[in-house]
Amino acid sequence: MTLDQFTIIALSLLLAGIAFWIGLEFRPEPKRPPLSDDPLTIDEMVFESFETSRQKGWHEEPRTVGDLIALMHSELSEALEEFRDGQPADKIWFRGVDGGPAKPEGVPVELADVVIRIGDFCGRYGIDLDEALRIKMYYNRTRPHRHGGKVL
Ligand SMILES: [Mg+2]
């Protein structure tokens, strides 16, 4: 059996209608340029963190603010565990992974994970992190010496 052009168009429209009816979207993922070697701006870091997280499926199920903040904590704990395992604070090392690129590890990488999770969070909630940093840093400059009187 051969399909003429009319039949192909009619079947395509029917499939598109069914897809629309059941809520499927055929939207290709936006093509992102490769990361450049230039320093990231805060906005670029937020966008990259959010977009990668979304494209890798981490936005498909709802997460609470508490979940997301706990995951930020978990990356700091991973940084501490690296140090407890004897890794110098400034050392990035690589773990071999079968069939894939070597996985970067170490305190600096876990700190990067913290920043990436914060960037993703800011992307999800539309937080202008650059503005928040500037506001808080400006305020911190105005604070007295060892404000609050805490020992640590
Ligand atoms: Mg990590």
Spatial order of strands in the largest sheet: 1-2
- Tell me the number of helical segments per DSSP (H or I, 4 or more residues long): 5
- Radius of gyration (CA) equals 23 Å
Hetero groups in this structure are: magnesium ion
Largest sheet entry: 2 strands, antiparallel
Question: At CATH's second level, what is the architecture of the domain at 40-141?
Answer: Orthogonal Bundle
CATH fold assignment of the domain at 40-141? Helix Hairpins
Question: What is the subunit arrangement here?
Answer: single chain
The N- to C-terminal Cα distance equals 81 Å
Strand content: under 5%
The CATH class of the domain at 40-141 turns out to be Mainly Alpha
Succession of helices and strands: HHHEEHH
* Number of DSSP-assigned strands: 2
Which residues form runs of ≥5 with pLDDT under 50?
Answer: none
Average pLDDT? 91
Query: What structural class should be given to the helix and strand makeup?
Result: mainly alpha
Q: What's the overall geometry?
A: elongated
- Roughly what percent helix? 55-70%
Walk me through this protein's architecture.
With 152 residues, the protein is mainly α. It has a domain at 40-141: Orthogonal Bundle (Helix Hairpins), CATH 1.10.287. 56% of the residues lie in helices and 4% in strands. It starts with a helix and ends in a 10-residue tail after the last helix. The structure holds magnesium ion. Magnesium ion (MG) binds next to helix 3 and helix 4.
